[in-house]
TrEMBL record, chain A:
Positions of the Yip1 domain: 100-270
Transmembrane in keyword set: yes
GO cellular component: Golgi membrane
Protein name: Protein YIPF
GO-annotated biological processes: vesicle-mediated transport
Gene responsible for this protein: LOC118270930
Highest taxon above the source species: Eukaryota
UniProtKB/TrEMBL annotation, chain B:
Coiled coil: none
Domain of life: Eukaryota
Membrane topology: Multi-pass membrane protein
The keyword tRNA-binding appears for this protein: no
Domain Yip1: 66-217
Organism annotation: Spodoptera frugiperda
Claim: Transmembrane helix is one of the keywords in the record: yes
Keyword field: Membrane, Transmembrane, Transmembrane helix
Annotated transmembrane regions: 112-129, 141-161, 167-190, 202-219
The name this protein goes by in its record: Protein YIPF
Encoding gene (name): LOC118264945
Similarity field: Belongs to the YIP1 family.
Major subcellular location class: Golgi
């Protein structure tokens, strides 16, 4: 009985009896797709029906409300191989084509990589920081080692600040210090200063090299730790500059910007290493005070 | 009624299905597969309670042996996740030791927040990737799939009552790793199909991370 009622309510009952039901339904769908597509050019839409249905799949509409999930879906529209390729491009730029950033990342920046690389880095640092502290203190007599969960919050604060503030500052710097040498229109189009989103994307991916390095930092050899700091900061900073070079060149403070990008990257790496992985020998008296009686 | 019947006959049976839909409200708390009609107003409280408990227990069973997928997805509830989360937070929370230094473990609320925010973020991630699953369904599955991790925590807690040796530490490590793999496997089994092809790994990775962090808490927890 319930079935019959819903059928009565939801059926299109106003069609004339001689009208074929199937064609009537296609008409209704056509009206709907037309509404979403805004195709004003072809009023006789009934003939190229399959095309208008497939179009929204190929190029999703971007006029969603800011507060809906659909608005953000365009930043997560990546496939597994794209993410892998972007991670590779942030470490080994020679593996991808020369204008990979301009062609791929600028046109379609994603937030999946930056967000999950940051989260992974936060917890990698917390876990391996604990391992480092254990290795450092394990062979001390009478010392009871305990893990410290609160490394997570410190690492999270540091990384979140870095990944948001530095690209924002760089974006502002690029925007307001760019000189428009408008002698060549086409070149201008090519080297337009990158959008905020693509900078977030680039910076997020550039953190990926720190994840394996954070694991390696657990080796308690001081010069080796510094070597890793220098190597990671240099490789990842150099790749950042490599991709941003066309935009940086247009800035008046070309050298200052390059210097500060590298400096911030180095500061981040050195800060991680010194705070989480390196325990100077001078703190022996504080360690003694935590020994259980 | 007769006028409707004649009209109804005009439509081919296959086409009516396009606009037809299930309109009955899913009843919460019934054990799956049991389609009895019930009236909960005049039944004893004990019966109501036991029925809900049985439903929760049934879901735990399906997490341990993840064979059929529909059991957890059909009727979500958050009772099981709440129980597991409270259990884990109670065991894992750091205790003040005598000389006023914390033992470094997370606070009760921190575990709670980690579990719920973690599940919400992982779910949001799969929604953003374009998965076709409802928000609470996914949170429910992620919560129930914590069961192996919680089990490994209980076992580790029992091991911790004895004198600790290096061998026992590795035993705890192995147990929590098993819990991690089991949980990830079950969650992937339930949630994996909701993602479009080519994005599956992207949706599974945060799930792995979520359970990995919980397992890290399990293996790091010690009472020394």
């Amino acid at each position: 009985m319930a079935n019959v009622n819903t059928g009565e309510l939801l059926d299109f009952q106003d069609y004339s009896p001689e009208h074929n039901n199937r064609s009537a339904r296609i008409d209704v769908e056509a009206v709907h797709t037309n509404q979403y597509n805004n195709t004003m050019s072809n009023p006789n839409y009934t003939f190229d029906e399959p095309k208008t249905i497939e179009e929204p799949e190929a190029a999703p509409q971007t006029n969603h409300n800011f507060w809906t999930i659909e608005y953000y879906q365009k930043y997560f529209d990546v496939h597994t191989n794209e993410v892998v390729e972007r991670i590779i491009s942030s470490v080994l730029p020679q593996k991808v084509s020369r204008n990979y950033f301009d062609e791929r990342i600028k046109g379609k920046p994603d937030l999946y990589g930056p967000i999950w690389i940051s989260v992974t880095l936060i917890f990698t640092i917390a876990v391996s920081g604990n391992i480092a502290s254990y290795l450092h203190n394990a062979n001390k007599k009478g010392f009871v080692w305990r893990y410290d969960f609160h490394l997570v919050s410190i690492a999270a604060t540091a990384i979140t600040c870095y990944v948001w503030i530095v690209p924002l500052a760089l974006w502002a710097a690029l925007k307001w210090t760019s000189t428009t040498d408008g002698h060549d229109e086409i070149e201008n189009q090519d080297a337009k200063s990158p959008t905020m989103m693509s900078l977030f994307c680039l910076y997020g991916y550039s953190l990926s090299i720190y994840i394996p390095v954070a694991v390696l930092w657990t080796i308690q050899v001081f010069w080796l730790q510094w070597l890793f700091v220098l190597m990671a900061a240099f490789v990842s900073g150099a790749v950042l500059i490599f991709w941003l070079m066309p935009a940086l060149r247009k800035s008046r403070y070309f050298l200052i910007l390059i210097g500060s990008i590298l400096a911030f990257h180095f500061l981040l790496a050195a800060g991680f290493m010194l705070y989480f992985f390196h325990q100077p020998n001078t703190t022996d008296d504080t360690i003694v005070s935590t020994v259980k009686p | 009624m007769t006028s409707f019947d004649t009209k109804y006959d005009m439509y081919p049976a296959g086409d009516v299905g396009v606009v037809e839909g299930e309109m009955n409200i899913p009843t919460r708390g019934v054990p799956s597969g049991d389609s009895m009609e019930f009236n909960t107003l005049d039944e004893p409280i004990k019966e109501t309670f036991l029925r809900d408990l049985r439903a929760v227990g049934n879901k735990f069973y399906h997490v341990l042996i993840p064979r059929e997928k529909s059991s957890l997805l059909k009727e979500w509830d958050l009772w099981g996740p709440l129980l597991l989360c409270t259990l884990m937070a109670t065991i894992l929370q750091g205790t003040e030791v005598a000389d006023n230094t914390n033992d470094g473990g997370p606070e009760f609320a921190e575990v709670f927040v980690l579990v719920w925010i973690g599940a919400a973020v992982v779910t949001l991630n799969s929604k953003l990737l374009g998965g076709n699953i409802s928000f609470f369904q996914s949170v429910c599955v992620l919560g129930y799939c914590m069961f192996p991790v919680a089990l490994s925590l209980v076992v580790c807690r029992v091991i911790l009552f004895t004198t600790q040796t290096t061998f026992l530490f590795f035993l705890r490590l192995v147990i929590s790793m098993i819990g991690f793999i089991w949980a990830t496997f079950a969650a992937t089994k339930f949630l994996g199909d909701s993602q479009p092809e080519g994005k599956k790994a992207l949706a599974v990775y945060p799930i792995c991370l979520f359970y990995f962090i919980l397992s890290w808490l399990v293996v790091s927890h010690s009472n020394v």
